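Run log // design_07
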């Protein structure tokens, strides 16, 4: 199983590299994004803001996230690989330049130079789950320095969001919910929901660079 996952990761990195080369053709302008983020602020600029579909969970912190990952996620919503209706509607309205600008903006938004502490030692059960999923192979030992910037930083992300996101990779044949990703789908389907919740709780408890920076919608 480990060899299979390693091969899957290698394929994913190759695919991401190809996507990244293509994405480099559009350079993001964080300053220009200041006029494009009103639709983002309504959810991601409010601390503790909760979504209610398909269940109640805090929306993800995106300030400090990797720009290439944000762009990848928005493009996945735009293509329909991620099916959340609200995010699909927003992403569909964005040009490639808009996506590049917004991604650049949130990568540097609220960013500090503070070092991320080493992760806490998980208990034996969680350690076994992390090993089974080979999580650090992509997301890094401290879950804040992924091996490729097209992968997300996870440390400190809301645990309830992480849990919902992991479950979404297991969701199939639903028109309005789920995420299509061969690597993450294969990994998530190895685990029960209780195990995914344990993973989400541990990763969410770690200190990281992600944050919600309160923003006013009208400036």
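design_07 sequence
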């Amino acid at each position: 199983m480990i060899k299979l996952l390693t091969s899957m990761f290698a394929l994913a990195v190759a695919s991401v590299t190809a996507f990244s080369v293509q994405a480099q053709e559009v350079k993001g302008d964080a300053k220009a994004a200041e006029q494009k983020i009103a639709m983002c602020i309504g959810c991601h600029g409010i601390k503790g803001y909760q979504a209610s579909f398909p269940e109640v969970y805090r929306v993800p912190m995106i300030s400090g996230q990797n720009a290439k990952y944000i762009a990848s996620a928005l493009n996945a919503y735009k293509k329909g690989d991620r099916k959340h209706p609200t995010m699909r509607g927003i992403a569909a309205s964005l040009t490639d330049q808009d996506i590049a600008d917004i991604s650049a903006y949130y990568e540097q938004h609220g960013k500090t130079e503070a070092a991320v502490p080493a992760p806490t030692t998980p208990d034996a059960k969680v350690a076994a789950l992390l090993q089974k999923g080979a999580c650090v192979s992509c997301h890094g030992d401290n879950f804040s320095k992924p091996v490729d910037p097209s992968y997300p930083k996870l440390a400190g992300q809301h645990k309830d969001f992480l849990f919902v996101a992991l479950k979404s990779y297991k969701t199939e044949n639903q028109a309005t919910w789920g995420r299509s990703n061969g690597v993450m789908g294969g990994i998530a389907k190895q685990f029960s929901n209780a195990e995914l919740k344990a993973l989400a709780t541990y990763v969410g408890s770690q200190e990281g660079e992600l944050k919600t920076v309160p923003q006013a919608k009208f400036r």
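The longest helix spans residues 2-23.
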